[in-house]
Amino acid sequence: MVIRIPNWLGDALMATPVYHNLCQHEKIYLLGPQSIVDLFKFFPNTEVLYYEKGNFKKNLNLLKPFNHQTGLLLTNSFSSAWLFFRAGLKERWGYAKDLRSFLLTKAVKPPKLTLHQRDYYLYLLEALKLPCNHRDLSLPLGKEAITKAKNFLKGLEEKPFIILAPGAAYGPAKMWPKEYYQKLAKNLVKKGWTVVVAGGEKEKNVGDFIQTEVKEVYNLCGKTDLITVAGMFALAEAIVSNDSGLMHLAATLKKPQVALFGSTDPEKTGPLNPKAIVLQHKMPCNPCFKRTCPYGHYKCLSSISVEEVIDALERLIKR
After folding, report:
1. For the residues of 199-223, what is the DSSP string, one character each?
2. Cβ-contact 133, 114 below 8 angstroms
3. CATH no. for residue 8?
């Protein structure tokens, strides 16, 4: 079976129960952006295929040898169904979204109730009568991930460390202010913690900003790949993040974590992790699901204090 995984890291991680359920019964091929799909190559009975955005011909040629396979779409777009159709996959299953039902051999009506994103993916399996007994997020990490992380950290992991992940690709309405992250880092260092800032190239400036006041912080943003980041998360004592892909990475690895929510809804995309504490201050206007604050004040995020985050961290680490 060829599975088109979601394009966003967080969604792809919330879909891990799908991969887990299906790879127990047949060989699966996960198709997605290379930067994300490589993270899932350690699932048993699984191979990864690299989807290249904007290169339809290359993607088509990649899939044509799989025309005898069933294709499962975890993406909702017309274009993903069109690709499977043109590649000639004998069965094409997915949600009846984006006017694409005529391209699918089995088009499932989306659930009427609002579900957590994990359950949205599992609902599709249930509707298709596919195995769905496993519901936990899970991410097998090969030795490669831990080895790469240790080589990158160069002994840093020998002392307990906390990771701050200040990014969110969605937009600023998901991002706790960088000044707060800076103050948090300063307090954690004073308490004797080693602090690492993790993220992509876009978060490097936030890491640099934190370092202007807290020289002891290690800014590793944009310096490594996702597999190495996953290894670092596995070695960390705890993670503090916004509602982001890295938040779901921490949840999938079952790490102690503090998740900071602003414009979005934890009921729909919160961390599915017994070791998670979610901090969100209810406002008349949230969840609004906007990328930027319509009122310009971002109070849903700025009202979360550094002291609250430290208290949550200390409660988690004492468990």
Report:
1. --GGGHHHHHHHHHH-TT-EE-TTS
2. no
3. 3.40.50.2000
